């Protein structure tokens, strides 16, 4: 049996402990990184979507500068809910959606309120006002500093949030599936497709 000198044994023990320490430290660092990724992911996912309470907001109309709050819009008339659509005066996707939105307003406007929100900070107040008067049969709100867009984590135009009479989001996504969502909610049914992809232009949060 080979005998290891005491000095060598001590050095080997020191090296081994160093390796163990490095391994433990590396594991702790990795765990911290992964934990940070989970936290970041959780923050990204913490955005109002179908089934969540709609964030309260107040913004002014583009034409007269009159304040409109979510609560007031939900209580207007006999509305069973509210369609909130983020729009732009320059986006071609919004231009394509104007007619479908007008038709949906004509069909469902007696039961649901409709409001558009322009959060693009690179569009002037005059441009937004002219666009509202020319292209939308329902109110357009000017979202100063994109505060409402931030509350809703809205990213595109057009992007739709359908809110029921109790202030709960029942549909989020594009204009294409909004009609079916309105029909479902109007009939007292669960919205079949509560989340869809909103395709369009990016909301410009800076001038």
Quick recap of the structure?
By secondary structure, this protein is α+β, with helices and mostly antiparallel strands. The protein is about 45% helix and about 20% strand. The strands form two sheets. Strands 2-1-5-4-3-7-8 form a seven-stranded mixed β-sheet. A two-stranded antiparallel sheet has the order 6-9.
Protein architecture, described:
- It contains six helices and nine strands.
- It is α+β, with helices and mostly antiparallel strands and 207 residues long.
- The strands form two sheets. Strands 2-1-5-4-3-7-8 form a seven-stranded mixed beta sheet.
- A hairpin with a 4-residue loop joins strand 7 (159-164) and strand 8 (169-173).
- 31% of the residues are buried.
- Mean pLDDT is 84; it is low at 18-44.
What would you say the CATH architecture of the largest domain is?
Answer: 3-Layer(aba) Sandwich
Element pattern in H and E: HEEHEHEHEHEEEHE
Looking at CATH, the homologous superfamily of the largest domain is: Glutaredoxin
Structural class: alpha+beta
The portion of residues forming beta strands comes to 15-25%
Q: Which stretches are poorly predicted, pLDDT < 50 over at least 5 residues? A: 18-44
The biggest beta sheet is recorded as:
7 strands, mixed
Defining traits:
single chain; 207 residues; alpha+beta; Glutaredoxin; 2 domains; 7-stranded mixed β-sheet; two-stranded antiparallel sheet; 6 helices; 43% helix
What order do the helices and strands come in, and which of them pair?
Layout: H1 6-45, E1 58-61, E2 67-69, H2 70-75, E3 81-87, H3 92-108, E4 112-118, H4 125-135, E5 140-142, H5 147-152, E6 156-157, E7 159-164, E8 169-173, H6 178-186, E9 201-202
Parallel strand pairs: 3-4, 4-5
Antiparallel strand pairs: 1-2, 1-5, 3-7, 6-9, 7-8
